[in-house]
Amino acid sequence: MVDIVVIGAGAAGMMAAYAAARSGAKVVLVERNHHPGRKILLTGKGRCNVTNGTDPQGIVAAFPETGRFLLGPVSRFTPDDLMRFIQEQGVPLKVERGRRVFPESDRSSDIVRALRNAAAGAGVQFRPDSRVERVDECKAQHDGGDNRHIFQIAFSGGGGGGGGVGGVQDVLGSQAGPHSQDALQCKAVIIATGGLSYPATGSTGDGYRFARQYGHTIANPFPSLVPLETTEKWVPQLQGLSLKNVTMRALSGEQIIGEEFGEMLFTHYGVSGPIVLSLSRAVVRAMQPGTGAAAFTAGKAQKVPAMRIVLELDLKPALDIEKLDARVVRDWTSISRKHFSNALDALLPKKMIPVIIALCGIDGDTPVNQITREQRLGLVSLLKKLVMTVTGYRPIAEAIVTSGGVNIKEINARTMESKLAPGLFFAGEVIDVDGYTGGYNLQAAFSTGYAAGVGAAEYCHKN
Known about the structure:
This protein is α+β, with helices and mostly antiparallel strands.
């Protein structure tokens, strides 16, 4: 029997295993995939925005609904602590715009390597290719004169367990002995299985099932930080066009529910990119009334907003209407005989010009010196407020983060231990915490993982 079994070798799981082993516990880290950290490899477009270079209060502020719960874990393992830990593993870091922290190499694989090497160095035993089927609570057993409360981890059949003649190549690249399908027994369990986003990486909601088994309630999972779908037919015409230094505002009815400045991307279904993902958090929440989780697990996007939601795109946020109009007048003074269709190169990307011409209603063959003041002001207004109507959002499988999960009111924020089942701990995205994009969610995973690892080790020492 081991002290602790950690289920899930993502950011939270590897950190939890490391922290528990470093605290003196005997730890087995179970992962359904052959290699750990598959979702980490995808983050930041393969670069891994590992954290945000702010203080604990800055991290907490990025989680509007659940930041108070995270204050303890993030204060216990801060962004500075995380950066120091990673750099001690030989991975230099850099800070970019918005205090986003990346490895200097721009390779997310370096972060995964740092985590797995640290865990292995602390004595963690890895068990890849092993999907957990059940987490059973056994009766207290007599062992060496003590009555011990234990869990039994049962694995599904088939390929799980990674067995085979001559052993299996484990995540550290060394030859590991073949794993059997025999159940593991332990004093404590840390569930770090992730949510429902990126199911190909192994996040398929197993953690919710384990939590329910012990009486936990699950806040309805839905996508967070996800691309948005729009209805306008001109949007797909701009597919692949990326815009920088623009401002986008989201409105639910008359209420502004979010505003972001930065980069966005047009797609065949709508819009994506950093500012869209940030806004999507508020947009998806505004669309939730009357929605069930079944649509997401079936891989379908939500299609019926409870209230009309629009996106207003400001293509020239550095200029107000008067200054932008003055710029247009100045640009056109020297090209007064040019056709309107050839007079927008200095204002817009080439791919966007036909769309703007169609939307503003000015004939492209009109010489600019014949365009009326009213027509020109209409163009300027369009550049300052290009409206798109949201019809839905992409499936949860395409979301960066899952919103929802194990109810935080049922978890001890200091140790991440269940308030309902002694010896059961949670870490990472399986918990109902999700924040803005910018490294905040990974920091939450590392901080809750660290707290769960230390908390589980303390539990084992006391029991």
